[in-house]
């Protein structure tokens, strides 16, 4: 397992005003907590944190956090990362200090690799039903990622949670749940085709209505013929 490091500084003051000042300085406010650990307010460089997450592609990683004024790094994971709803920039971070001898539960992302045979040769569609699974493991056994090779899947095949193999990790998600499946191709009518069909139906309806009117006219004529003709009035 590779070593991931990050630097943080202890901060004084809490609340919105103090956090605002931290962000103005280009840092993100946060807190460290955990079992048998007194909460510690910290701040870290926002760019350093963003670059780390971008490089690793995840947040559920074991981090050696070097806190200013402390001799040894703390072993932490990112428990929660709050982001700005507009800019998506980090706003606040919760860091959980772990025990290396105690298992912990967390969610891990599932990534599909390869192109299924049923998609490539039969026109099927690959559907990823589940993108995360819950696991339990020691902090040192957290997998970097879970990759599933779907290249041999054909139409009708499914990959379930029970098909995942991980060392030193307990999978907590229901084993029968589906991760991915390859389904037959579906025919989707275009808007133009639907409009054309609606147009044909409309024309048929109009023709039928015209035909009904045309059939009614002779009956009206017969009714007129059935009436006795009135004699023309003589001019005086």
What is the H level of CATH, i.e. the homologous superfamily of the largest domain? Ribosomal Protein L25, Chain P
First and last CA, distance? 124 Å
Class of the largest domain in CATH? Mainly Beta
User: In percent, how much strand structure appears in the residues?
Assistant: 25-35%
Give the helix/strand class: alpha+beta
> If helices are DSSP runs of H or I spanning 4 or more residues, what is the number of helices?
4
Q: Quickly give the CATH architecture of the largest domain.
A: Beta Barrel
| Topology as a string of helices (H) and strands (E) | EHEEHEEEEHEEEEEEH
Low-confidence stretches: 216-236
The value of Rg in angstroms is 36 Å
Strand order of the largest sheet: 1-3-2-6-5-4
By CATH, the topology of the largest domain is Ribosomal Protein L25, Chain P
| Number of DSSP-assigned strands | 13
What would the principal axes of the Cα set say about the shape? elongated
What is the residue-averaged pLDDT? 83
User: Helix coverage percent of residues?
Assistant: 25-40%
Number of domains: 2
Main beta-sheet annotation? 6 strands, mixed, barrel
